[in-house]
Amino acid sequence: MSELLKLFGIDLGTTYSCIAYVDETGRPVIVNNSEGTPTTPSVVYFESAQNIVVGQVAKDTAEIEPQKTVQFVKRQIGKVKEVYKLGEKPISPEEVSSHILKKVAQDAEKELGAPVKDVVITCPAYFGDEERNSTKDAGILAGFNVLAIINEPTAAALSYGATLGGAEKVLLVLDLGGGTFDVTILKVGKSIETVCTGGDYNLGGKDWDDSIIRYLKDEFSNQTGCTDDITENLETLQSLRASAEKAKIQLSGKETTTITVQHDGTRARVELSREKFNTLTANLLSQVISLTDDVIRQAQEKGISKFDEIILVGGSCRMPQVMEAVKSKYGMDPKLQDPDAAVAKGAALYAVMKKKGEIDSAPPSESKEPIPSLPPIRYGNGDQLPTITDVTSKTFGVEAVDKQKKPFISNLIMRDTSIPTEVSRTYGTVDPNQPSVSIKIYEHASYDSEMALPKDAESLVIGQTELTLPPNLPAGAPIKITFKLNENGILEIFALDLTGNRSVTATIERKSSLTKAQLDEIKERNKGIMVT
Ligand code: AMP
User: Fold this and answer.
1) Across the strands, what pairs with 22?
2) Distances (CA, A) of 455 to 398, 408, 452, 459, 515
3) Burial class of residue 272 (count of CB atoms within 10 Å of its CB; 0-12, 13-18, 19+)
4) Residue 342 φ then ψ, to 5°
5) pLDDT tens digit string along 229-258?
6) Catalytic residue at 74?
7) Phi and psi (nearest 5°) for 320?
8) From the CA of 200, how far away is ligand 1's center (Å)?
9) Which of 107, 130, 131, 175 is catalytic?
10) Most-buried pick from 1, 319, 425, 427 (CB within 10 A)?
11) DSSP 3-state of 28
12) How many other C-beta atoms can be found within 10 angstroms of the C-beta atom of residue 141?
């Protein structure tokens, strides 16, 4: 019998990351990092061109050398091309994320004595096409075979569903992490079906920390008479950030805490009570509740009018204010479900499911290589694995023109549609003998099937392609456009010139995911680099 293959799930978080694998008994297990903790700060310190430090040491160093550290990179992945400059070299969010992935993988390799190769990486449910591609690219740069990108709430539901003994339940999952908030309604049982999803990727523990930082700044100036904005000093800001997070965490367990603020040789001691903290952050908590209400409303429109349980995941759900607000609003005791680990554990279970699917569907091999044995997965009360259906959190459309030749967005795949999905629609060319059609693809969060071009339309374009047409087509010649969204949320576009049944296929140009050549170049450049 071949050796048991270890398959991994990585929760690549905004503030902390975590890795899990499935052991020989079918249980997902978190692997501690080399510092002995289950989660690793997603902070990267570029000590030198050859030495990159990730994790707690980087987070501590951020106070002393903030200009050499990168934090919260997940908020920028898929959106910008550069988050740091190493000498003259621009460093992308994908590359920074790959260092975080490498660090958690290296530590797990050391602990388990097995290579980390096949992985599933998680992302928020509302990540769009580019963010997903970029997350996958980060995994490729880290040297992984990325089996899949799975939505964080689906992963959490998978690890929770494994404990349910086969019962069918509708879950409301709130995932409030360090930088993102995901709210999802899922049906869990023999299958895991996402009903609808929402959230905000600019809402997380960091914002609660920021509220404390603002308070500390004001208190410092009240106590010392200092009129400077002390947060403009990078070192002071980093130190305030660390103290604010520490104070916030302490306030989850006790009623008051004291914070020392130091700036330019002057210090102040600031008392902060949980009550005051709750007041300072009340607006953030209202956003959590209002985003949750939006998703509940969407679920009602899809015929799901009640849920059986509320599951809280993500480190920030440890704040008592979250528990209390959810309980008082929805009249049900929420369950704090393995908040730091549930997502990575679910991803590890999914890695086994994916690999099993790959092996089962591979053509019979002539090779003498033994087929790797996979760990068993226990799910519910049997070993029947659930089927997983996700929904897209985004709407995808193309630009079309109306009779007055005024452009609008015609949406093909609507938000909250189950994936994989494929939708085709036929459009007509505008002019006779038109040499080509330009296909501009939009991704956004609207539920409307047709919409006027919004002001920020250009920022919603995720790709554009040109379909060359044969000569002498009349105006109105039919062009069939097909959008295909796979279970990883990645979109492919096909365009077909229906006249005379000739077909033309077009591939979408990605705006920000890296090309193979770019990936190879970064891999080559990083060959000699140590990540510790
Ligand atoms: P995650 O991304 O799920 O690891 O969540 C990380 C966030 O949870 C960070 O903003 C942490 O400061 C926050 N966090 C972790 N533990 C606690 C706690 N006990 N109380 C409040 N916030 C916490």
Assistant:
1) 28
2) 16, 12, 9, 9, 30
3) buried
4) -60, -40
5) 999 998 899 899 999 999 999 999 999 999
6) yes
7) -55, -30
8) 17
9) 175
10) 319
11) strand
12) 24
Can you list the domains of the chain with their CATH numbers? 8-203+308-389 (3.30.420.40), 205-282 (3.90.640.10), 392-497 (2.60.34.10)
DSSP string of 342-377? HHHHHHHHHHHHHHHHHHHHSPPP-S-SPPPBPPP-
Q: How far is the CA of 319 from the centre of ligand 1 (A)?
A: 8
Q: If 0-12 CB within 10 Å is exposed, 13-18 middle and 19+ buried, where does residue 293 land?
A: middle
- Select which of 11, 63, 338, 443 is catalytic: 11
Q: How far is the CA of 69 from the centre of ligand 1 (A)?
A: 20
Pocket test of ligand 1: the residue of 73, 249, 340 to mutate, having most ligand atoms within 8 Å of its CB, is 249
Nearest Cα neighbor of 260 from 295, 234, 236 is 236
Ligand 1 atom with minimal separation from the 14 CA: 2
DSSP state of 125: T
d(CA 504, CA 121): 34
Cis peptide before 420 (omega within 30 of 0): yes
Residue with tokens 């500390």: 216
The CA 322 to ligand 1 mean position distance, Å, reads 12
From 74, 102, 394, 440, the catalytic residue: 74
Measured CA to CA in angstroms, residue 420 lies from 38, 180, 489, 527 at distances of 33, 25, 8, 36
Region 330-343: mean pLDDT is 91
Mutate to test the pocket of ligand 1, among 10, 16, 18 (most ligand atoms within 8 A of CB): 16
Ligand 1 pocket mutation pick from 249, 251, 316, 322 by most atoms within 8 angstroms of CB: 316
**Mind listing the pLDDT tens digit for each residue in 455-469?**
989 989 988 888 888
Rounded to the nearest whole angstrom, what is the distance from the C-alpha of residue 314 to the centroid of ligand 1? 7
| Residues 504/495, Cβ–Cβ less than 8 Å | yes
- Could you tell me the pTM of the whole model? 0.84
| Alpha carbons 347 and 104: distance in angstroms, whole number | 15
pLDDT tens digits along 59-92: 988 878 888 999 999 989 988 888 898 888 889 9
Longest dimension (CA), the chain: 81
Task: Report the DSSP beta bridge partners of residue 398.
Answer: 410, 441
Phi-psi region of 78 (alpha: psi -120 to 50; beta: other; left: phi over 0): left
